[in-house]
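Standup, Tuesday
Yesterday: got the pipeline producing structure tokens again.
Today: sanity-check two examples.
Blockers: none.

Example 1:
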Amino acid sequence: MFEHSVTDIFFDLDHTLWDFEKNSALTFEKIFVDNSVEVMMADFLAVYVPINLEYWKLYRENKVTKEELRFQRLRRTFDSVGAVVADDQIHILAHQYIEHLSSFTHLVPNAVEILEYLSPKYRLHIITNGFQEVQEKKLMGSKIHHYFDQIVNSEMAGVKKPHPYIFELALTKANVNPINTIMVGDSLEADILGAKGMGMQVLHFNSNGEPDHDHCVMINDLIEIKSFL
């Protein structure tokens, strides 16, 4: 299926290996109880999830700062569900969310199984737009850190996927030709098109229900990678 022989596989982290939605929901449950925030969790998450994705897109495009992302995604969600939460409390919640998020360690189905399958045959790496202090904790807490050789994040690179430089930095650190690599990620824009633009081979793990496209093969379960490698 892949045109060139593969030596190195680069994974995105959130929504690709680390189960962001499940861990995020558990984090909100904890901090809302701790801070006596009364809101229906199902209603909150139904609004928060698309708003969060929207703010991450703005963050990738350098249209909001890290602080604005962390505050505004909560402010807008509380406003939308009609919950009265003061700005100072939102700042506290935003801080506690980041503080506790990495303490939850659920991975997407078959993440460990596919890493176990791939790691004897290929060098594995991470390229993530997540924040450095959080991503390292996620990898350690979920006990998958040891599978990866190079771990490159957007704060280290100074740019975010799909910017070419973050891929260039990762390829340089791994000392590999892009045609001998595969990028596995959940975002068509950030992971697939970004990596493809650098000459990497790509595999779209469609965990967000993005529409079909013809840029590359799409899979719905990580275990499907076994069919190709």
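Example 2:
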Amino acid sequence: MPETLETLLQSSLYTDEHRLFRQTFRQFVEREVVPRIPAWEAAGLAPRALWKRMGEQGYLCPWVDPEYGGAGADFLYSAIIDEELARVGANIAVALHSDVVAPYIASYGTPEQKARWLPRCVSGDLLLAIAMTEPDAGSDLQAIRTAARRDGDHYVLNGRKIFITNGISADLVIVVARTDPEARPAHRGLSLIAVEAGTPGFTKVRNLHKLGAHGQDTAELLFEDCRVPVANRIGEENRGFQYLMEKLQQERLVMAILSQAMAERMLEDAVRYAKARVAFGQPVASFQHSQFKIAEMATELALGRAFLDALIAAHMRGEDVVTRVSMAKWWIGEMANRVAYHCLQLHGGYGYMEEYPIARFYRDVRFHTIAGGTTEIMKTIIARRLGL
């Protein structure tokens, strides 16, 4: 009996309860998300109504402690949500909001900050972003120039951030800023400061026009003598870099999850198309070249899924998986880009048409080898942790 891609790539991590949740969430996505993707792509962001709807259904920050309105669910529920949105090409920054930014508040926030912000993160009333990248400081976080000068009970922020996912939609932006300009090494002078939308001196300059991921906004942000209460600092002063290093493990794991899910969907679609499309009197899938390409991609996807599952399990056990996460982030991201290229080629001219999802996937997945740390930075981390 032939093996299907679905059985070949089936994860070993999920229980029956997880699978039931996936089925329910997939129905929600097909009903509430898929029909509206073209409109969100055209608008350059998803509407607040979607975030509210997801919050009502418990699909935002499901891991948050019930004390703050969450379900206290394990990380696999987040992985399911991230996978299912990625599989339909829904470029909504849910993973960023729920699994990248909110954990900073949960891990390093004061009880007052958690009570003030986390329930609204869960409900969809408070959308999050994190502002690291600057025009002259991308992967090199030590080069951050945005300054936060202490003035009594406030910080005065001055600086510019760029490529900030969800920056236009966000109600609260965690800004990485320099609080000690004399610190040596430089990374010891960084802090995390939460800035609320509408704060005088905080300007959302523009929604950037980019190659792909059109359904989520990506902003340029400006801070000009922006006064923020010291009470909005997340964690201790000058320990921001340490907090970033601790949380980037999960951020990069999430990126690998998104890349894997998108690649699996692209191959499923390409196989279905190649079986149906006839050229020279026979299905495209019957040509040896097509079969070899599909076999190669299926092999890489199976390897990616096995590695990713093991990595998720280790992360959930609380292990230090920075080296393996860095491997997964770059390799699965690059693999997804190879899959996008070959799947579009299997579609022929139709793959270049916007009506076919592969065209959008092809654009969108390119982002995955850059965001959250470039492929080159991931290789540098691996080399350093191997003692090179």
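Quick observation on example 2: The radius of gyration is 21 Å. The mean pLDDT is 96.
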